[in-house]
Every structure is written in structure tokens, then in C-alpha cells.
Amino acid sequence: MVDRYYSKVYFQNLYNLFQRIQKKILRKHFLYKIRITPLNIEEKDKFFIPLDINILNKMYEVFKEELSEEKYMVLKSRLEENSSDKTFVVLDKDENIYGYYSMSFGNHFEKEMNFKIPKDEERAYLFDSYTFKSMRGNSVQLFAIKSRLKIAESKGYKFATCIVMDGNIASEKNVMKAGFEKAGTVNYYHFKKIKKTFIKEWD
Fold this sequence. Notes:
two-stranded antiparallel sheet; N-acetyltransferase domain-containing protein; alpha+beta
């Protein structure tokens, strides 16, 4: 009985170690896709507007613990006229900032997963969605997803895609509430100097 118990503990610890090693080497993601249809967004108290330098500076000042200098510079680069990546923010009537939400209309490089998403005339790409911790619980993420789909529709896109890390339950719920469906896998392997991403889009 004792031997069985220690054997169970040993194999459980071994499995936990394997899981930790795997998570360091492999990051699993799912690709989500939606066919864009006309949307009516019923939100009277919040506004979805393009990020500008004044809002960015205010956001950096108010949420400095959540917005690093490196991230500030990334968001600032998307303000450039020639950038195909654009960022938007959610504000309320009192001009409180809830978070930032991005989408791409051209070639986009996913730095964290080390691969390029090529420009697609039919598909817009939604990414880099962040609601500040103190502003969560107001259905802001869902509002931001639908608002970007509305923008994509106005520009003539037929589809939109996004990538969600496996286990990010909150993001999964929001994209599925917006109508997205799982459409593939994106697995990122990182071992020492080796960085490789494998994308598989389901038929």
C-alpha cells in the first residue's frame, strides 16, 4: 500500500515536471476565424476610437505598472501613417481609458511567436487586446472585438482571424461569443536558439 502511494506520488511529480518543461518549449495556440456579417453594436456608454499620442501618453501615465516603456514604443510605432497595424482604445463618457486593442490590415509580424502573417485582401487580423486590470468585468473585450469587426466590414473584409493561447479561457469565451470558431492550431517551439512556428489551418 505504501509502495503504491509513493509510486503514485513519484509518477505525478514526474508528470508535473514534464508539463513544466513542455510549457517552456512549446506554446500552444488556436486560430479562430469568423465570416464578417453586418453588426449592430448596442453600447451607449463606451466609445471605440483610434489611439493617438495624447491618449497614449495619458494611458502610460495612468497605467504605468501595466504599460512598459517597450510596449509604449510599440504602440507609438502603430501611430505612424505607413503602419498597417492600428491600435484603438475604449473610452467612456468621462474619458476613462479601459484598454487597447489592435488589428492589422497588411503584413504583420508576431514577435512573440516569431512568424509573419501575410497581407490578405479578404481577411483582417485582430491581435494585442488588453483591458487594464482595474477596468475589467465590463464586457469591454467583447465590445472591442465587435467594434473591430465593424471596422473590418467597413473596409470590405469578408473574414477576420485571431490567435488565442491555449488555456486563456477569458479570451476564448469572448471570441466565441462574438461568433468566432476554431479554425486551426498555431504551435510555437522555442528551445535554446531554435525558434519555430507551425501553423495548421483546418479545412
